[in-house]
Design a protein that fits this description.
247 residues; alpha/beta; eight-stranded parallel β-sheet; two-stranded antiparallel ribbon; 36% helix; disordered C terminus
């Protein structure tokens, strides 16, 4: 659905780098802790940042701009941006971002290949030790063609799931990734969620968190998407999730 709102003008900032402490404590948040955790693509627009902070959203920081704006954050690997721009994965930029921000984030996405299936898994596993040495928690991206048995041996206390892949594959397989995360008790995050309908799919799957660029590009979408993530929902396990937080 097209929205009649304009992109906000970005505001120039000082080059100060902020390093808030990571919020991951080793325990995976679940639906009884409150709404799904939401991560917005990093933005430099003051008004949008103020709205995101008030709504208690976090930021997903990319290697292309290593600024956290004082938010709790997670670290992306930049593979999606490289994919959409037709460029190879920038290993050096990722290494730099991991060294500077990896330790203070909630988690870091292991390098992956968009829609790359088993080749993506092999790449991620080669980076596993490096990322876990620099970040408290790593997310293993699952891509088109992978099934739970492919990744289960690598999940655990410090390794969770990042549901990537093509849109159709992601929506079709999301319930099985949510179920696997609940079985193992690991973090399950879903990338590129920019509509209320897809937030509901995340809730039904019982995942931990999601990210999207809509609220960063068009701040007028924040009330709609934040309302959606705060709705109560019964996911297949029969547990009432996304309970309102106690005041």
């Amino acid at each position: 659905m097209a929205l009649a709102c304009e992109k906000e003008e970005a505001v120039d900032h000082q080059s100060t780098m902020l390093h808030p402490p990571g919020t991951h404590t080793g325990r995976v948040p679940d639906c009884l802790d409150g709404p799904l955790l939401a991560y917005a693509s990093r933005t430099g627009t003051r008004r949008t940042l103020a709205a995101l902070r008030k709504a208690e959203w976090r930021l997903l920081v990319s290697p292309s701009c290593l600024r956290t704006e004082g938010f709790s954050y997670a670290l992306d690997n930049g593979a999606w941006s490289s994919y959409t721009q037709g460029r190879p994965f920038d290993h050096q930029s990722f290494e730099k971002s991991l060294s500077r921000l990896g330790r203070g984030g909630d988690w870091t996405v292991l390098p992956d290949i968009v829609t790359g299936g088993h080749a993506s898994l092999e790449l991620s596993l080669r980076w596993m030790r490096r990322v876990l040495d620099a970040s408290p928690y790593a997310l293993l991206a699952v891509q088109d063609g992978l099934v739970p048995d492919d990744v289960t041996p690598f999940l655990g206390k410090r390794v969770g799931i990042f549901v990537g892949g093509s849109t159709a594959w992601k929506e079709a397989t999301l319930p099985q990734w949510g179920a696997l995360g609940r079985q193992i008790d690991c973090w399950v995050h879903v990338g590129r969620i920019n509509s209320a309908r897809r937030i509901r799919l995340c809730q039904l799957a019982g995942v931990t968190s999601f990210d999207g660029s809509s609220v960063s590009r068009y701040s007028c979408t924040l009330p709609l998407l934040d309302h959606a993530r705060n709705q109560c929902c019964l996911f297949p396990g029969g547990v009432l999730c996304n309970m309102p937080k106690k005041q």
